[in-house]
């Protein structure tokens, strides 16, 4: 069946899309929170710092400014004038208040023992004339990004009352190690802003569909090896502490699309061992299986709500890939179709609170992203006239969506990168560039 073949093409992520060459903001929703003007001053540095340490101090301030710039609906970042003094001065609240500034941030970097630096970050609420954050840490140059993100998150939590995306990570797949006709796809991890990239797997084959446990301890993914002869799609489990990987499921056919269930002891995955694609529950330790879906049509690509009470998935039941939901603890009697847009759909993913599902839909000869309530109400289109977009994943706070977008450079060359948008479709830009074709982003905070 043509639609079934299309769905499995999506499932294996071999499809090709086009993308517009112009980055623009697509205003789908309206901001509901008044922006607070924020100034983060240039760093105060002591004379004992080396040139490299002074550069790290400048990078710290750039990082802080960049972090808060992601929350464009909450903060309006204003560049501060360069500091002409070594030591932090007493804050002139009346001056900053006249400038309309609500939050003032300063960073002081001093020489510490050995090659270390003492970093102090202070944020003040100009309106109340009070410090809302004051924290110090000793770090090397290599640790400045981690310290900066952690302190930025501390400030955000004081202002907003919840954690930000600043300490989160994105796991993704890249083909940057491909040479000639030998396709190689491996898993990588990066900070939410696209920096600090590290390679996670080194199989030399085709790795797909990564998924991390909520505590960041385990990673599941599928692998097709580059060995000669028959190549199976096997499911692997990696211990992120030891970086050791072992086969979790290698049944005949497809073993893929796995996601962790609440508690981290079980996964939901797609198997074709019965001759048809169905979604199963697997106990990681015992390998015991329980069939979740049971239909003659293909059911693939599960995503589970955080409380474990609802699963969304793709099914070919209407003759084309559409999105369904069901209680994964129950039976087929509670299955509900919730998408009716486009020729076919792909990659449904829950928001952290389980209230929304973001997905891609083939419409007008390209993929676009849509958001819908978990009950099937309130459909919103998130992308339009921005090429073809897929693989959405919510940030840990539900405020952003990372996704893949691909531009066709020529008949033989494509460029696929990971972008970030806010939850209402305001595109902030690409966070990967020149790192091969990047797909399957998965956003985590651990």
From TrEMBL:
Keywords annotated in UniProt: Signal
Residues annotated as signal peptide: 1-18
Gene3D superfamilies in the record: TolB, C-terminal domain, TolB, N-terminal domain, Tricorn protease N-terminal domain
Pfam families xref list: PD40 (PF07676)
InterPro entries given in the database record: 6-blade_b-propeller_TolB-like (IPR011042), WD40 (IPR011659)
PANTHER family in UniProt: PROTEIN TOLB, PROTEIN TOLB HOMOLOG
Family classification: Belongs to the TolB family.
Protein name per Swiss-Prot or TrEMBL: TolB protein
């Amino acid at each position: 069946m043509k639609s079934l073949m299309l769905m499995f093409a999506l499932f294996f992520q071999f499809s090709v899309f086009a993308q517009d060459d112009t980055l623009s903001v697509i205003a789908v929703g309206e901001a509901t929170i008044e922006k607070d003007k924020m100034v983060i001053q240039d760093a105060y540095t002591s004379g004992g710092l080396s040139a490299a340490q002074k550069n790290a101090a400048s990078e710290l301030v750039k990082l802080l400014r960049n972090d808060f710039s992601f929350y464009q609906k909450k903060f309006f970042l204003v560049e501060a004038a360069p500091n002409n003094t070594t030591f932090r001065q007493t804050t002139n609240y009346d001056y900053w208040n006249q400038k309309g500034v609500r939050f003032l941030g300063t960073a002081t970097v001093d020489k510490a023992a050995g090659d270390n630096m003492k970093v102090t970050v202070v944020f003040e609420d100009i309106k109340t004339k009070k410090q809302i954050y004051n924290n110090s840490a000793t770090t090397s140059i290599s640790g400045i990004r981690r310290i900066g993100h952690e302190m930025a998150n501390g400030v955000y939590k004081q202002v907003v009352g919840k954690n930000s995306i600043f300490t989160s990570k994105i796991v993704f797949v890249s083909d940057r190690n491909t040479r000639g006709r030998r396709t190689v796809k491996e898993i990588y991890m990066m900070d939410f802003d696209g920096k600090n990239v590290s390679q996670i797997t080194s199989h030399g084959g085709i790795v797909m569909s990564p998924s991390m446990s909520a505590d960041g301890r385990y990673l599941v993914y599928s692998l097709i090896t580059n060995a000669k002869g028959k190549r199976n799609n096997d499911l692997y489990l990696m211990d992120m502490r030891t970086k050791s990987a072992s086969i979790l499921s290698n049944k005949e056919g497809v073993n893929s699309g796995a996601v962790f269930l609440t508690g981290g002891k079980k996964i939901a995955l797609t198997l074709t061992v019965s001759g048809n694609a169905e979604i199963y529950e697997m106990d990681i330790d015992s390998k015991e299986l329980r069939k979740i879906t049971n239909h003659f049509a293909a059911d693939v690509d599960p995503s589970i709500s955080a409380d474990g009470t609802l699963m969304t998935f793709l099914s070919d039941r209407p003759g084309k890939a559409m999105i369904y939901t069901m209680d994964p603890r129950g039976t087929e009697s509670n299955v509900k179709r919730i998408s009716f847009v486009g020729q076919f759909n792909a990659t449904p993913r829950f928001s952290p609170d389980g209230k929304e599902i973001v997905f891609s839909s083939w419409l007008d000869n390209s993929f676009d992203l849509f958001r819908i309530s978990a009950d099937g109400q309130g459909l919103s289109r998130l992308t339009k006239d921005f090429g073809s977009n897929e693989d959405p994943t919510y940030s840990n706070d539900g405020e952003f969506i990372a996704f893949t977008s691909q531009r066709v450079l020529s008949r033989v060359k494509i460029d696929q990168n990971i972008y970030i948008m806010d939850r209402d479709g305001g595109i902030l830009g690409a966070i990967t560039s020149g790192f091969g074709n990047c797909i399957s982003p998965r956003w985590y905070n651990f």
